[in-house]
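Let us practice reading a record.
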Amino acid sequence: MLDTFFFPALEEYDTDENTLFQQDSASRDTGYLKAKVFENNPPRNIVDLKERIRLEINNITLETLHNVMGSFAVRLSQCVANQGRYLPDTIFKK
């Protein structure tokens, strides 16, 4: 999928070999929201699911957003220092 869609689309932008991207839907990114949406009972239908997602997104505090951005900056620095190689201690840390 990256070769077929992502990299050709990336060529439309002013990027070079130092361009970084983060994969969407990584469990680290979606796990918190999914846990909150399904915390009590599973959604009854798609409308209920969408409403719960909106509600939980609106409940995310500024402090949480600042913490996430700070954590991302740390992980990004570690990735650069590790020359883009896999960071198992960071990704799977509990």
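A brief commentary: Helices lie at 2-10, 27-37, 46-58, 62-81, 88-91.
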